């Protein structure tokens, strides 16, 4: 489909890449005689726009007739909404022990301090590398 359309527009694969916003040579990988890459959603969308093609979903009556009675129908979904379902959690000792093992405010403060220390070391090393590569700056 795309190969025929690009040929009918008399453009090269590289031109299609430029119009579609794809990397140079990507259309050739997708549409070449021996495709190297497979189509993904992004490539399809970009090439549809570049070639001026729209995809249209149409129900196939023959296919529907074949599959009509294969599987049983799904029951109607329940009309009960999540907001109508009541949820309660009893704060028993097992639950409290479990969340206590995760740590409280003090543990969170320690974690944050470690993260900020790692960030500070990373920043310091980044600045040192910059000074090595740019001595006059």
Compact description:
The chain has 137 residues and is mostly helical. Among the domains are: 2-51, no CATH class; 93-133.
How do the helices and strands follow one another from N- to C-terminus? HHHHHHH
The oligomerization state is: single chain
Total strands: the figure is: 0
What is the number of helical segments per DSSP (H or I, 4+ residues)?
7
Low-confidence stretches: none
Approximate helicity band? 55-70%
Radius of gyration: 30 Å
Give the end-to-end Cα distance, rounded to a whole number of Å: 55 Å
Mean pLDDT: 84
Task: Characterize the biggest β-sheet.
Answer: none
Structure description:
The chain is mostly helical. Among the domains are: 2-51, no CATH class; 93-133. 57% of the residues lie in helices and 0% in strands. The chain has helices at residues 2-8, 13-20, 26-31, 41-51, 61-67, 93-102, 105-133. Helix 2 (13-20) packs across helix 4. The radius of gyration is 30 Å and the shape is flat. The protein starts with a helix and ends with a helix. The mean pLDDT is 84.
Layout of helices and strands, plus pairs?
Blueprint: H1 2-8, H2 13-20, H3 26-31, H4 41-51, H5 61-67, H6 93-102, H7 105-133
Helix pairs in contact: 2-4
Keywords, please?
mainly alpha; 7 helices; 57% helix; flat; 137 residues
